């Protein structure tokens, strides 16, 4: 929010009391003063009435935002109006859609007559390859095949209707198309017992017991939600027991982080420690799940000293913590601690391999750029896992990022001091409604089948809140204004540039990432001037990162870019880069080994004389906050 400049003393009085003769043009300075005189205060603090009015508006919008899952109805309406008015002014597009509807209708009528007469004509339309809803052979039986084809034809028509309307902004087109898909999913024959042959077969076979189990599942889930209890799967994977169980000590704590140092797995370690910076939107143990899925344990067993930041779960009292606090109290405080603990008696400290995941990677990029600007050479390398530094193509999350939507979300956070985990979960559920809502409705509540819980599911249910100020700054400075990529993001009053980073970078993207699309992560190649190793792995934003050796069906591609090499666009890079089988973890450790010294004796757990005494065993206390 920009601040207006103060007017000179006496300006408003002179304007009110007279000035140039009537009809004479006002000087430019007087015009500026007159404009300033009637402009409301930027922060609403100069006049009590303005402050009260702003507070009332924000409280009202914040209360409404709780009812709309933090989605602005005004932003949605603007998208529909933009599409509807431009479509109304496009008679050619209307005629094309009318012709398509007529052609589809007549073809479907003729096709239906053949099917009902016992013939087996070729389908009019097939599901998209990624659409698994109608894969069961029973969907090919009459009349279910007709229901599927009619639904798919309707989807196809609406796709054409919401795309290619001249004059509609790209953002509004994406929003309208997304909302149309959401509405159509409600009508999908797979989501209703009367039109789903698979569900009908299960119900006949079990005599309706599946529906009884489903009702029990629904009642139990609703009860846990009302009582504020975690999902059932979370109870089977408890931090410090089944997950986050790698032995270690909390060696530092402040109001925002706990720093965990893990016990070495052998008698020698590489001299360069590894600092892991996870995203603060979730608990840190995505990097330390059950022993077989733990990246922390894997690095320890390969001879590295490992530290990880465990973020505190903020509440209303932390509303004013900002991005700079997360950099200073998070990344920089952790680097200071790692440096002090791993230094030798002579005061010589090794350089540090820093790894950031998701939002933690974005924050680490900012910190690394500021360190490079200021001549801080403590980093040995920089690793970014599914982390964006350019937010122009930031995936489907951008559907909820525009000025009106950000203001709506800010009013929600302003009224309560943070963004709640359930509000965040609502947005992700909408983005992946087929997987997270409709699939659950079908399997758990209609078929009565509970999925087998796993450590990744339990972690995914263990979210954290985000402070009002930090998330507002994140949305405005990175998503809306893309300051980091443009070189205008400021740290301590001065801009930072990723081109200042000179340490080697290892960037990992996942092929099915809906949060940080891999082509967006690939843009790091345009933003840095240092050695860059880019790796693309199969899987999604979380499952693609948690890919230990032995994981089935995992593949990856990797390439290294050095100075002065010509640019290759992401799609051409993907076609030209060989595909390798297996986990990317061994590839990453080999990369670290090339940039690390010969093994030495491990550092102590904490260093009391430097102010970093062990406080309590890992995983500490912050990970248990809900």
Structure description:
This protein is α/β, with parallel strands linked by helices and 626 residues long. The protein is 44% helix and 11% strand. The protein has helices spanning 11-17, 28-37, 48-67, 73-88, 91-116, 144-162, 170-187, 197-206, 209-226, 232-235, 295-301, 323-342, 359-373, 403-416, 421-431, 433-446, 455-460, 468-480, 483-486, 518-522, 524-527, 570-576, 585-594, and strands spanning 248-253, 257-262, 274-277, 306-311, 352-357, 379-385, 418-419, 466-467, 490-491, 494-495, 505-510, 532-537, 555-561, 580-581, 616-617. It has an 11-stranded mixed beta sheet with strand order 14-13-12-11-6-5-3-4-2-1-15, sandwiched between helices. It has a two-stranded antiparallel sheet with strand order 7-8. It has a two-stranded antiparallel sheet with strand order 9-10. Helix 6 (144-162) packs antiparallel against helix 7 (170-187) and helix 14 runs antiparallel to helix 18. The protein starts with 10 loop residues before the first helix and ends in a 9-residue tail after the last strand. The model is unreliable at 1-41 (pLDDT under 50).
């Amino acid at each position: 929010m920009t601040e207006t400049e103060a007017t000179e003393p006496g300006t408003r009085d002179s304007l009110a009391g007279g000035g140039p003769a009537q009809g004479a043009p006002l000087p430019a300075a007087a015009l500026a003063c007159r404009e300033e005189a009637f402009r409301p205060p930027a922060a609403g603090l100069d006049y009590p009435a303005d402050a009260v009015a702003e507070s009332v508006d924000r409280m009202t919008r914040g209360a409404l935002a709780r009812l709309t899952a933090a989605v602005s109805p005004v932003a949605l309406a603007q998208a529909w109006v933009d599409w509807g008015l431009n479509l109304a002014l496009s008679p050619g597009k209307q005629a094309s859609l009318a012709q398509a509807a007529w052609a589809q209708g007549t073809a479907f009528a003729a096709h239906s007559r053949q099917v009902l007469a016992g013939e087996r004509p070729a389908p009019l339309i097939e599901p998209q390859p990624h659409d698994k809803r109608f894969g069961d052979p029973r969907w090919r039986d009459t009349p279910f095949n007709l229901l599927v084809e009619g639904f798919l034809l309707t989807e196809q028509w609406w796709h054409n209707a919401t795309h290619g309307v001249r004059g509609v902004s790209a953002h509004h087109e994406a929003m309208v198309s997304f909302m149309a898909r959401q509405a159509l999913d409600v009508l999908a024959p797979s989501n209703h017992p009367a039109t789903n042959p698979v569900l009908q077969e299960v119900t006949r076979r079990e005599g309706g017991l599946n529906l009884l189990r489903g009702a029990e599942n629904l009642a139990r889930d609703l009860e846990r939600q009302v009582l504020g209890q975690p999902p059932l799967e979370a109870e089977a994977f408890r931090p410090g027991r089944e997950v986050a169980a790698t032995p270690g000590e909390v060696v530092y704590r402040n109001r925002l982080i706990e720093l965990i140092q893990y016990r070495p797995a052998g008698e020698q370690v590489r001299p360069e420690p590894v600092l892991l910076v996870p995203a603060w939107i979730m608990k840190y143990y995505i990097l330390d799940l059950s022993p077989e899925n733990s990246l922390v344990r894997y690095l320890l067993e390969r001879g590295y000293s490992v530290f990880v930041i465990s973020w505190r779960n903020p509440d209303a009292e932390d509303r004013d913590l900002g991005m700079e606090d997360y950099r200073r109290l998070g990344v920089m405080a952790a680097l200071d601690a790692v440096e002090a603990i791993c230094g030798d008696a002579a005061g010589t400290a090794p350089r540090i391999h820093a790894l950031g995941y998701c939002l933690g990677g974005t924050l680490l990029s900012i910190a690394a750029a500021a360190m490079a600007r200021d001549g801080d050479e403590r980093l040995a390398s920089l690793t970014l896992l599914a982390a964006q530094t350019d937010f122009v193509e930031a995936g489907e999350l951008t559907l909820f990022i525009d000025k009106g939507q950000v203001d709506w979300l800010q009013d929600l956070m302003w009224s309560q001091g943070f963004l709640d985990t359930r509000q965040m979960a609502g947005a992700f559920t909408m983005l992946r409604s087929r997987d997270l809502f409709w699939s659950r409705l079908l399997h758990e509540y209609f078929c009565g089948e509970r999925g087998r819980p796993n450590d990744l599911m339990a972690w995914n249910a263990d979210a954290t809140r985000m402070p009002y100020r930090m998330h507002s700054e994140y949305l405005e400075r990175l998503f809306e204004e893309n300051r980091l990529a443009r070189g205008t993001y400021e740290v301590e009053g001065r801009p930072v540039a990723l081109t200042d980073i000179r340490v080697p970078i290892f960037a990992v993207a996942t092929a099915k990432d809906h949060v940080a699309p891999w082509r967006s992560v690939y843009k790091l190649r345009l933003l840095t001037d240092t050695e860059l190793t880019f790796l693309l792995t199969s899987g999604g934003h979380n499952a693609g990162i948690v890919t230990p050796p032995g994981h089935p069906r995992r593949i990856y591609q990797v390439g290294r870019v050095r100075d002065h090499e010509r640019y290759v666009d992401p799609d051409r890079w993907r076609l030209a880069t060989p595909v390798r089988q297996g986990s990317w973890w061994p590839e990453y450790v080999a990369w670290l080994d090339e940039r690390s010294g010969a093994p030495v004796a491990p550092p102590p757990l904490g260093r009391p004389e430097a102010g970093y005494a062990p406080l309590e065993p890992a995983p500490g206390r912050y990970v248990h906050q809900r």
